[in-house]
Specification:
The protein folds into two domains: 103 residues, Nucleotidyltransferase, domain 5 (2-Layer Sandwich), CATH 3.30.420; 186 residues, Nucleotidyltransferase, domain 5 (2-Layer Sandwich). 44% of the residues lie in helices and 23% in strands. Strands 8-7-6-9-11-10 form a six-stranded mixed β-sheet, sandwiched between helices. The chain has a five-stranded mixed β-sheet with strand order 3-2-1-4-5, with helices on both faces.
Length: 294
């Protein structure tokens, strides 16, 4: 049986097709949709964003037909769960594409992220999983027995991008206002006793890896450890970069070029706030958790 998962993220839509039950990945792709642009902070999906999203799903449906997929599972996250007009989009997709979108809560999202990451990392010691999204960011403290702390925060890079005005490159005051916002939103969580190992779940962390190593992130389905000092130095470079610098950088995919400094500021803040000593990058996240997870 062939199954597909579509992860309808706030910035990016991801498609994963696999043969079950062998878990053999047959095909995967992503499209920058920017579903949350021009609306996420008003709890709505803009007309242009809705059109981009529908076109991406039309393309994904065609790919599923070509790959003779038996079952499609579509998961809606932050932008869709918060938008007052998401029902309109969900109904249109169901009616015209015969794809049922399941809009999940932040805690459900965190559990599915863990389900994916635990397939790539052996939790010999506890670790803090971080998944950077466009609408939300999930933190999951987990060990070999599963998550023991989990929370989803509406601090996604698309929300941050549309919440403030930034200079190019970002000024010291720009960075301070983002960090102050993170402190206001997340301080209570980070006052708890947290693991000092960080696992970055796919997405932006794959880009971070490629910027450090200057090569494509390729893995055999296992999380890869990166040097903490080199990792933080790379974050500093992204934060200090100009838009033109990022536009020229082939390791940053188009949808991340505008918002990469915000992802870097947020990650650097977490490293320091949680006193992180070791860092891993996992190739799996939500979509693998849906398809392969517990």
């Amino acid at each position: 049986m062939r199954r597909a998962v579509i992860d309808l993220g706030t910035n990016t839509f991801n498609l994963l097709i696999a043969e079950m039950p062998t878990r053999g990945i047959l095909f995967q792709t992503k499209e920058g949709v920017a579903l949350g642009m021009d609306g996420i902070n008003e709890n709505r999906i803009g007309e242009a964003a809705m059109a981009r999203a529908f076109a991406a799903l039309q393309h994904f449906k065609q790919l599923c037909v070509q790959w003779e997929v038996d079952v499609i599972r579509a998961i809606g996250t932050s932008a869709l769960r918060d938008a007052t007009n998401s029902g309109e989009f969900v109904m249109k997709v169901a009616k015209e594409l015969n794809i049922e979108i399941e809009v999940i809560s932040g805690l459900q999202e965190a559990q599915l992220i863990y389900n994916g990451v635990q397939l790539t990392h052996e939790f010999t010691t506890p670790a803090l999983i971080m998944d950077i999204g466009g609408g939300s960011t999930e933190f999951i403290a987990a060990d070999a027995n599963g998550p023991f702390l989990a929370q989803s925060f509406d601090i996604g890079v698309s929300r941050l991008f549309q919440s403030f005005t930034y200079q190019d490159p970002m000024s010291a005051s720009d960075i301070e206002q983002v960090e102050a916002y993170l402190e206001a939103c997340c301080t209570a969580f980070f006052k708890q006793q947290l693991p000092n190992t960080l696992i970055g779940a796919s997405g932006s962390f794959e880009t971070f890896y490629e910027l450090i190593e200057e090569k494509v992130f390729q893995t055999d389905g296992q999380a890869i450890e990166v040097d903490r000092q080199r990792f933080e130095h790379m974050l500093d470079r992204i934060i200090a970069s100009t838009q033109a610098d990022r536009d020229r950088n082939a390791h940053i995919i188009p949808i991340r070029k505008r918002m990469a400094p915000l992802a870097a500021i947020k990650t650097r803040w977490v490293l320091r706030r949680a006193k992180i000593e070791r860092i891993f990058v996992s190739p799996y996240s939500l979509k693998e958790g849906v398809l392969f997870g517990l």
